[in-house]
Design brief:
Blueprint: E1 25-31, H1 42-52, E2 53-66, E3 83-84, H2 85-93, E4 96-106, E5 111-120
């Protein structure tokens, strides 16, 4: 069975402005990529993920979160950020219906790798 071209081609880009057509994918997978953008850019990223997903498309992501608000200081794409769940989850839920929300790994009692599965609204 032949797979779609997108499954066989690798690209590099900026998740804040994806270089794909609207409604191109059934699923978007983000494995600890979004935690390299600033909190101010979360809305942009979720809008881009929603834009490239087809109707009822699925977003699967793993993201590091922190149980308490942790100001980022000066942003750099090389840094990894631990978003406050109180800030991150409402931004996720603005574009996606949560199907699954589960902490799958604890770095310590506060920092958790959160696995989210959402359906495009």
């Amino acid at each position: 069975k032949k797979v779609p071209w997108a499954a066989t081609r690798m690209t590099q880009g900026d998740i804040r402005k994806l270089d794909f057509s609207e409604q191109m994918f059934d699923i978007v997978i983000d494995l600890s990529t979004i935690d390299h953008v600033s909190t101010d850019d979360l809305d942009k990223v979720f809008s881009e993920y929603s834009r490239v997903l087809r109707k009822d498309g699925i977003l699967l992501m793993c993201v590091w979160t922190d149980g308490v608000f942790n100001p980022e200081g000066e942003w750099s794409p090389d840094n990894q950020y631990f978003f406050s769940r109180d800030i991150f989850l409402p931004k996720f839920e603005s574009k996606f219906e949560v199907i699954k929300n589960e902490s799958i790994f604890d770095l310590d009692e506060k920092k958790k790798l959160l696995c989210l599965v959402g359906k495009k609204k």
